[in-house]
Structure formats: structure tokens, C-alpha cells
Write a structure and sequence with these properties.
The chain has 17 helices and 22 strands. Strand 5 and strand 6 form a beta hairpin. By secondary structure, the chain is an alpha+beta fold. The longest helix has 34 residues, at 289-322. It has helices spanning 9-14, 23-27, 59-66, 82-91, 95-98, 109-115, 123-129, 191-209, 289-322, 355-358, 384-391, 409-418, 531-545, 551-554, 556-560, 569-572, 578-582; strands spanning 39-45, 70-76, 133-138, 159-163, 173-178, 184-187, 215-220, 227-230, 244-247, 329-335, 362-365, 373-380, 422-427, 431-432, 441-442, 447-453, 458-464, 469-473, 486-487, 514-515, 607-610, 624-627. 25% of the residues lie in helices and 17% in strands. It folds into two domains: 9-418, 3-Layer(aba) Sandwich (Alkaline Phosphatase, subunit A), CATH 3.40.720; 454-627, no CATH class. Helix 3 (59-66) packs across helix 9 and helix 8 (191-209) runs parallel beside helix 9 (289-322).
């Protein structure tokens, strides 16, 4: 597996005159000169992994985007599930602010997106207001169906051709719905190839009018998502193990012979001897060879399905080159969420807070963007809408929960010192694997998580609705195999759980409060604060982020410390703040497990804001204010 360590500024600064990162790249403006705004092409794959090395099997992506643009190694989705992630991407809002937290009603899907008012308040609407033609091909949201696609029609698109449920994920039986026309079945046609043909058509439309009006084109194939046969047109509140039939993705016939020996990378956390994590994950059995062989087949099928996506990238770039527009066009490549197969004994799927599921591909090419650069600044899907609006030279909204991603060499260099270090990750509801084995529906998979990355630290901290906690130091433990949070078995506090949601052997009946060793220092790292000091800082940050809005989401340390003297975890760990974090703050916990975002079930809210010390410096005289 390919790994990178640190933002390669030595290469960037020393190689500004090289072919891979020419001096002109660093000096060019972010957008082309002149009165016209830049064209933007946005390719959004479905469930694509970063940590199982899928990008290495896409040579056209490398040729046209990775080698000609910048790769963001630490890009994260904030919800590792299709529909919630896509809504956050197109609105710039965290899932707790969109209240779209599932793929089906009542807590998610296209009907929920529309009912929350976002059909008149998301990116294509804003880009049209900024003077753009906007086009979309492929999957927009889950639960956009052959029955509800017109109630209402998805707004904001000059031209659109949406995949519709229940046929969205059927590679050889897809249904598309163009503009305001009736749905059309493409039974027997390979869906990614149909997406490509339609995308090329909209690209030609955009190029034809580009002299007068720039265009924004989204191409969203379902590859490498599993092939899914949905048994009901709309699953509304009654999802079960019989609602869908899931199987490996189907490759195009021309690609079936490729990669015969490809296997899931056998990393340290692949099908381990001892179980990992907490909750239902900690009770997963070790996979046998028959199971592993099938999952390797599933993995190969994903790589094969991506070949048509890779060819589509070549087709788009070739057409832009022929039109003389490629150097004036920004091209983004990303996915909605990551994927796991076998790590931590997990069957194929997503929705976890592990790195495989939340750390996802993002590659950007365009005018002024360094070529061949890999950046380690922290970015997330809530940052993409602000980034695209900035490229469109239009004012950013003050209710965005993200901030624009720096794209030029000077901005990227400055961001190493100034960029936020955190990602807020959240999940609600149920989870079911997509493979042949272990496809058990676990009725509650609700948690809040914090991903925090600095120059010499890297943490994942998760609080589950069951009361279980996880803390991983990814510097010492990059595969997240050792939970640093111990539990005191003498503590038997009972968590109120709804009896209709949690049943069977996976049902937690009690939880323990975390305990920590004051002398604990992780191995293989120079930064190892005692957990008794570290965990309250992480908990407070998560407490703020779990209900944050706008600036609270992008600058949480500034909210906690308005004077601005705390910018990162190192600053927050100063001894003068021990009482502030360890005594004055509330702790993240749930009062009830739910299948969706029910705010009153998510425990205490609000943080205490540091107001300094008294005139003689007595810490006991500090003044705090409760922020709700």
C-alpha cells in the first residue's frame, strides 16, 4: 500500500523549475485571467477506497489528474454513508445540520433532502446564481425513485440525467431520468458506459456555450459500489435483511480478464487473530479461507468496475483537450465514502469511523494548482462546496460548516501552519455488510467521532450510543488495533436503551466509564500526553463539534479560547487549562440509541468557554461562560 509522510514542500520548493512542478504553476492565479469564470468538472465515484490502493489500478487517473494536479492525502468524509455524505458535500453542512442521516426515509434519502428545504439551497442553485450552466449525470441521492423523481424534480440543473432507484445499483439494468422526461430503462447496457456517454453529451453542451457562460459538470457513476437489487421502490422505515440482495460489482465484459491475482492487502489489521474495536465489531468471528477467497473476489470486482470509470476520465480529458479547454478547467476526483474488506474482521462495507471508511481520495487538477504534489493538510467533504464557490468567484455563505480548500502552492504552504486539524465524524442507525458472509443487520450503529491530526499526533476518538469509547493513536498504531481507553468493570451504570432497537446477543446492557493510566505514553511516538489530560481535551472538542454550526465547526479551538492563544492540541494541553477541561466541561454521552438524529437523545450539549484568570493570576478565579 502506498503511503506518504508529510507535505512534500522540499520537493515543491526545490523543484519549482522542474517539469512536475513548474515555477509558473506556483505563480499562476487560481483562476484564468479575463472576465469568464473557470469551467469545473467534478467526478464522484461511489464507495471507493483509498487504503486498499484502488487508485493504483487507475492509470488514466494518474496520467491526467494525479501527475497533473494535487492529491490531498488527508481528505475525509464526515459521514461514511452514501446519501448523508453527498448531502454534506453539496450543502457544505455537517449531517447533524442537514438532518439527512440515512439512505432511506424517514431519516434520509432524497425525500428527506427535499423535506429539509435543500432542494432550493444547495450548490447547483448557488452556481446558477453565479452565472453557471450546471449538469449532472448519474447517482444524485439514494431513494430518488421511478415514483418520486418529480415530487419535486431536483432543482438547480441546466441538464440532468439521474439514476433512479430501485435500479440505481444494477450495473446491467439501470434506469435513467433525463431533465423532466419520463424514466428510461437501459436493461442490458453497462451503466458506467451509459453514464460516460451522457456525460460526454453534457460536456459538449457546456463547451459549446462556454464562451458566454462557464459550466459545472458532475459525473457520478455507481462504480465501485456493490451490485444491489432493491426489492421495493422505496424503503421507508422498514429496512431488513430481505430488503435488498447485494453482490459484488459487475465489471464491463472487456475488463473481466484483468488483475486475476489481485487480493485485499494483507495488512496488520486484516482478519486479525484477536478481535478489535467495541460494540458489535468486537464480537465478529475470524474469517475462514472460504470467506476470505470470496472477499478477494469482491475486491477484484471493485477494481475491475473502476476500469470503466478510469476510461471515462480519459474520455473527458481528451474532449477538453480537443476543445482547447483543459488548461482552463478545474477537474475534481473524489468519492462519497471509503470502504473496508476484511480489516478488523469486517465483511465488505462502510459506515465505520476507521480510516478505511472515512479517509478517501481527493485529486484536483486546474490552473494554478501544483502538479504532482501530495498534500497532508486536513480537508473534508464539508469544505468542497465552499471551494467550488470560491472557484466560481462568488461570495461564500456564512452558514457553511466547512471552509475552502487551499489549492495554490503558497496557500498550501501557509495552510500547514494555519489549517484546522480536526474532522467531525458522525453516524446513526443500522448497518449491514454487503458481502456473501456475515450479512447480519445490526440494529444500532450510532456514534460521534473526532479525527485529530497534527504535526506529531494523530488520533481517532469515538463515543458510541451504547456508552462504549474508543481512542486510537495512529502515530503508534496506524491500523487502529489497540484501543487506549480501558474500562473499569466495577462501574455498572445502566444506559437507557429502547427495547425495540437493541435485541439479541449484540445488545449492550451496561457500560463503563473510561479510565486511564496517568503515566501512559504510546510507543513509537515522541508525543504521548497522559490520557488523564488528553481525553478530556478530545471529549470537549467532540462535545462542541457534535452540534456545531458554521464557525464553531471550522474554528473550535477559537470558540473554546476566544483570546486566540490556543490553536491546536499542543496549546490546549498546557497545565493551566487542566481544571478547565478536566473539571468544568461536560462529557459526550447519549441518553438513548436512535436510528436517526434525535437531538434530545444525544445527551448533554454545550461547552464552557475560557475567560481567562483574575487580575492576580489565580486560576480558581477564572471566568467561564457556558456556550450552547
Amino acid at each position: 500500500m502506498k503511503t506518504w509522510h508529510g507535505l512534500n514542500f522540499s520537493r515543491l520548493l526545490a523543484g519549482l523549475n522542474s517539469e512536475s512542478c513548474a515555477a509558473s504553476d506556483a505563480q499562476q492565479p487560481l483562476v484564468p485571467s479575463g472576465s469568464l469564470k473557470p469551467n469545473i468538472v467534478f467526478v464522484l465515484s461511489d464507495d471507493q477506497d483509498l487504503h486498499m490502493d484502488s487508485l493504483s489500478f487507475m492509470p488514466f487517473l494518474k496520467q491526467h489528474l494525479t501527475d497533473r494536479g494535487t492529491t490531498f492525502n488527508r481528505h475525509y468524509c464526515t459521514n461514511a454513508l452514501c446519501c448523508p455524505s453527498r448531502v454534506s458535500l453539496w450543502t457544505g453542512k455537517a449531517a447533524h445540520n442537514t438532518n439527512v442521516t440515512d439512505v432511506n426515509p424517514p431519516y434520509g434519502g432524497y425525500p428527506k433532502f427535499a423535506s429539509q428545504g435543500f432542494n432550493s439551497a444547495y450548490l447547483p442553485i448557488w452556481l446558477q446564481d453565479a452565472g453557471y450552466n450546471t449538469y449532472y449525470v448519474g447517482k444524485l441521492f439514494n431513494a430518488q425513485t421511478v415514483d418520486n423523481y418529480h415530487s419535486p424534480h431536483a432543482a438547480g440543473w441546466t441538464g440532468s440525467d439521474f439514476l433512479l432507484d430501485p435500479y440505481t445499483y444494477e450495473y446491467l439494468n439501470a434506469t435513467f431520468q433525463r431533465n423532466h422526461d419520463l424514466p428510461v430503462s437501459y436493461e442490458g447496457r453497462y451503466s458506467t458506459d451509459v453514464v460516460a456517454e451522457k456525460a460526454y453529451g453534457f460536456l459538449e453542451d457546456g463547451l459549446r456555450s462556454a464562451a458566454q457562460k462557464p459550466f459545472f459538470l458532475v459525473i457520478a457513476p455507481t462504480a465501485p459500489h456493490s451490485n444491489v437489487h432493491i426489492n421495493d421502490n422505496l424503503i421507508d422505515g422498514n429496512f431488513s435483511e430481505r430488503s435488498v440482495v447485494q453482490s459484488p460489482p459487475v465489471p464491463a465484459e472487456r475488463h473481466k480478464h484483468l488483475f486475476p491475482n489481485a487480493k485485499v492487502p494483507r495488512t496488520q489489521h486484516f482478519n486479525p487473530e484477536e478481535p478489535h474495536s467495541v460494540s458489535w465489531i468486537s464480537r465478529l468471528p475470524k474469517q475462514n479461507e472460504t470467506n476470505i477467497d470470496f472477499n478477494d473476489h469482491f475486491y477484484r470486482s471493485r477494481l475491475l468496475a473502476l476500469q470503466s470509470v478510469d476510461e471515462m476520465i480519459d474520455g473527458v480529458v481528451s474532449r477538453l483537450q480537443e476543445a482547447g479547454a483543459v488548461e482552463d478547467t478545474f477537474i475534481f476526483y473524489t468519492t462519497d465514502n471509503g470502504y473496508h474488506i476484511g480489516q478488523h474482521r469486517l465483511q465488505p462495507g462502510k459506515q465505520c469511523a476507521f480510516e478505511e471508511d472515512i479517509n478517501i481520495p481527493l485529486v484536483v487538477r486546474g490552473p494554478g494548482i501544483p502538479k504532482g504534489l501530495a498534500s497532508d493538510i486536513v480537508t473534508s467533504h464539508t469544505d468542497l462546496a465552499p471551494t467550488l464557490m470560491r472557484l466560481a468567484r462568488t461570495a461564500l455563505r456564512d452558514d457553511f460548516d466547512g471552509t475552502y480548500i487551499p489549492l495554490t502552492a503558497p496557500e498550501l504552504q501557509e495552510a500547514v501552519e494555519t489549517r484546522q486539524e480536526h474532522v467531525n465524524v458522525e453516524m446513526w442507525g443500522i448497518i449491514m455488510s454487503e458481502g456473501k458472509y456475515g450479512s447480519v443487520l445490526y440494529p444500532n450503529h450510532t456514534y460521534k467521532a473526532l479525527r485529530l491530526i497534527g504535526q506529531d499526533y494523530s488520533y481517532l476518538y469515538t463515543v458510541w450510543c451504547s456508552g462504549e469509547h474508543e481512542l486510537y493513536d495512529l502515530v503508534a498504531d496506524p491500523y487502529e488495533t489497540h484501543n487506549l481507553v480501558a474500562h473499569d468493570p466495577s462501574n455498572h451504570s445502566i444506559l437507557a436503551l429502547p427495547s425495540d432497537d437493541i435485541t439479541g446477543p449484540q445488545a449492550p446492557t451496561a457500560f463503563s466509564t473510561p479510565t486511564f493510566s496517568p503515566a501512559h505514553t504510546p510507543n513509537n511516538t515522541t508525543f504521548g500526553p497522559p490520557l488523564i489530560h488528553l481525553l478530556p481535551r478530545l471529549d470537549t472538542l467532540l462535545m462542541l463539534l457534535k452540534t456545531c454550526k458554521a464557525r464553531e465547526c471550522t474554528h473550535p479551538w477559537k470558540v473554546l479560547h476566544p483570546e486566540g492563544n490556543v490553536r491546536n492540541l499542543h496549546d490546549a494541553l498546557r497545565a493551566e487549562y487542566d481544571d478547565f477541561y478536566e473539571t468544568q466541561q461536560q462529557r459526550v454521552e447519549f441518553s438513548r440509541c436512535e436510528k436517526g438524529y434525535i437531538r434530545e437523545s444525544e445527551g448533554p450539549e454545550g461547552v464552557v468557554v475560557w475567560r481567562g484568570v483574575d487580575e492576580v493570576g489565580v486560576r480558581g478565579g477564572a471566568r467561564w461562560q457556558h456556550l450552547v
